[in-house]
Write a structure and sequence with these properties.
Helices cover about 35% and strands about 20% of the residues. It has about 260 residues and is an alpha/beta fold.
Amino acid sequence: MRAKFVLLLLVVVFLSCSKDNDEDIVIVDSRTIEEVIEDFKNLNIQPGINDFSLESMNTGVFWNFRVIAPTDASETNKRPLVMALHGASGGSPTAHQNTSCYVEPGLEELNAYIISPNAGTEQWYSINNQIQVINLLELAKANWHVDATKVLVTGYSNGGNASWLYTDFFPQYFTAGIAMASSYNTRRSDGSISAIAVPLYVIHSNADELFPVEITQAFVEDSLNAGSTIEFVVVDGLSHYTPCDYVSYLKEGVAWVQNQVW
């Protein structure tokens, strides 16, 4: 029922929660809510890697995503759920499948359900991607053996920025966040900074060529001063363009989430 409730409120909720965004949702020929839920239930989830294309409520508009499923999830062994958001991909149709670099080894210890969606040609903060991310999350929680107290959002670069965004504006859906190589300004358009309710682990290199560490550190400090819980880790010498090198630091972030948050 919760998944159905979220789908019913797509237009109202996402227009109200979007970050300073006047973008309009264009609803084209629609499918029924029941059809989307039924299609999701019929996905053949096998332990390990699964790639899916699910038709959304808009006819002909598909959500393309990878699911990495644990081998031992059950009603008595509910597993964490991770939303893993890829970096800027130029609209690559296979961006969601690039999980072997850092997602799989970095999150291995969690033994979690991992959803890696594809942002398409839009940014993660677009209304359409907000709809995709939150509804895939809720559909998974309603239909899989998920521990709803352990829901993590993580990402690298553009996906790292999105990890800040989703913990900032959708704290009711996530219980932890890990952002890598990111740059996210928490200041609102009126100049205010609100505390982020979800604990964040932020990893950044002092050699990042795209997002200078000083800028990210300033954003972290502003958010900390507003009351957020953030563990900020500066790593030495890693290029922004070598995300695979972040695996060991992502593992440390996972350990922090397990020991300090969950």
